Amino acid sequence: MRFRAKIVDLACLNHFSRVINTIAKLAKTCALRLTVSKLYFILSDKVANGGVSMWCELCQGNFFDEFQMEGVAAEHNEIYLELMPENLSRALKTAQNAKAVKIKLTNKHCPCLRVAVELPSLSSSSRMVTHDIPVGVIPRRLWNDFREPSVPDFDVSIYLPVLKTMKSVAERMKNLSNSIVIEANSSGEMNLKIETDLVSVTTHFKDLGNPPWASEDGCQSSAQSRDLESMAEARIDIKKLLQLLAGQQVNPTKALCNIVSKRIVHFILLHEDVSLQYFIPALA
User: Fold this and answer.
1) What is the Cα 112 distance to its own chain's centre?
2) What is the C-alpha to C-alpha distance for residues 102 and 236, in angstroms, rounded to an integer?
3) Residue 271: enclosing H or E segment and its boundaries?
4) Cα 242 to Cα 66, 238, 280, distances in angstroms
5) pLDDT in tens, the chain (284 residues)
6) Quick check: 245 and 167 in contact, CB under 8 A?
7) 178-182 contacts: CB < 8 A, separation 24 or more?
8) Most buried in the list 10, 136, 202, 241, measured by CB within 10 Å?
9) Which helix (H) or strand (E) holds 156?
10) pTM of the prediction?
């Protein structure tokens, strides 16, 4: 089992750091799955227990100049590690104007991801800063716990408004309520609302557009067969929503959400080489 990678391009390094910072805001610990072509950061708190889950996928070729990986076995050419993304985020903060960053899986006293940052220096010799980040190796028998979550059979799928606008609305509402209702329909309308004994506040968004989803078997999903004006809604924890809106540094080119009425809200943020899915379960 081996892994080593190197980033030289500064724009790629900064982009990678932003992705890691986002993940650190969304998860205290997560799984890192390494394959030959991709990296995945996975949080799989059981949604049934009220936990959020996350799936972030990166194409390694768009970030790394070198990438070598040998999995646990020839037929299972993957590595699954458990780590605290905040530790990786901190290590990368020292690399903002680095000449190169090398990441390597080591096992001196315990398994670690070694992040070696080569910094520019005035003399001919370069300065190296090394961080050893403890990781746990997830055994093969547990890999199935970290499979990609399936897109739920949603009632409504809608593009999100500008995330900064959504964030400022949610931040103001947070002072009045612990939960927020997200409702949307297939006519491109979305409302964010809170209702308490004292106050009821709703923010309306229009003309957002609805993504064209083609189902695999050619049948209509429940979203396509329902009335276009009919609202699907879910009440979710406002802090969990703000964690995503305030924490995201992916700067997506597309952002959408799928609502399964009264069950779950599934957010998808897409950038050219990153996709981030975030599932927030509805409150009872």
Assistant:
1) 23
2) 40
3) strand 264-271
4) 35, 6, 11
5) 999 999 999 999 999 999 999 999 999 999 999 999 999 999 977 654 568 899 999 999 999 999 999 998 888 899 999 999 999 999 999 888 899 999 999 998 899 999 999 998 877 777 899 999 999 999 999 999 888 887 778 999 999 999 999 999 999 999 999 999 999 999 999 999 999 999 999 999 999 999 987 555 444 455 556 788 899 999 999 999 999 998 888 889 999 999 999 999 999 999 888 999 999 999 98
6) yes
7) 178/237, 178/238, 178/239, 179/235, 179/236, 179/237, 179/238, 179/283, 180/235, 180/236, 180/238, 180/241, 181/233, 181/234, 181/235, 181/236, 182/233, 182/234, 182/236, 182/241, 182/257, 182/259, 182/265
8) 241
9) strand 156-159
10) 0.90
Q: Which two tokens stand for residue 276?
A: 């981030």
